[in-house]
Amino acid sequence: MEESKEDVPKPIREVLKRDDVTLRLLEEVHEADGRRYFRRSWHESPDAVRLTHLEEIEAELKQFLRDSVTSDDFTSVRDRVLRLLDELRTERQRLAQKEPFNDIRDPEKSLLIDIFNELPAGDAIVRQKAVQLSNIMKIKHEDIAELQKQNARAASWTRWGTAGTIFFGLLSLALSLAPLWAKSGAP
């Protein structure tokens, strides 16, 4: 099997070659990779961090599966990786149900959790509406962040445009006054 070391980290790749690999083992190996430590945010809950790790592991598993298509032992690799992907998706769904508002910022998240906890447990429709509201809020936050980036770029271009206009205005003024200065004999 051909290794592409940039796609799947070597420790993960080595663990995936074993028949006795489990999702828990993959999480531990993934967690031990020091590059991921700095991407954590101080305000994220442990479940939110774990959910992020599971998403990264899922991407690595899919890449490993793609890379192993041409290998001789593809059937066993396929079965092992698909089993792990199924376990991983089940675990992600369990975590998403446990804490459905991980992707929302803190003030809104706190309010939604309080509302969610006060809802009757048997009323699935109202709980689903609360989750839908959190998804709408998440999308709006992403839209606002994108607009802020675009505004920052536009402000930068505006500053350059203003500076350019002033520069070319002064240059034009100097060039239009140059013939007058030449006739008057001023240096």
| Helix-strand makeup class | mainly alpha
Helix percent band: over 70%
Strand-residue fraction?
Answer: under 5%
Elements, N to C (H/E): HHHHHH
Which oligomeric state applies? Answer: single chain
- Main sheet record: none
Q: What is the total tally of β strands?
A: 0
Outline: elongated
Question: How many helical stretches?
Answer: 6
Q: End-to-end span in angstroms?
A: 79 Å
* Chain-averaged pLDDT: 80
Task: Give start-end ranges of low-pLDDT stretches.
Answer: 1-6
Backbone CA Rg: 28 Å
Characterise this structure.
The chain is mainly α. The protein has six helices and no strands. The protein has helices at about 10-15, 25-30, 45-65, 75-100, 105-120, 125-185. About 10% of the residues are buried.
Key words describing this protein structure:
disordered N terminus, 6 helices, mainly alpha, 187 residues, single chain
Outline the fold blueprint.
Elements: H1 10-16, H2 23-32, H3 46-67, H4 74-98, H5 106-118, H6 124-184
Helix pairs in contact: 1-2, 3-4, 5-6
Quick synopsis:
With 187 residues, the protein is an all-alpha fold. It has helices at 10-16, 23-32, 46-67, 74-98, 106-118, 124-184.
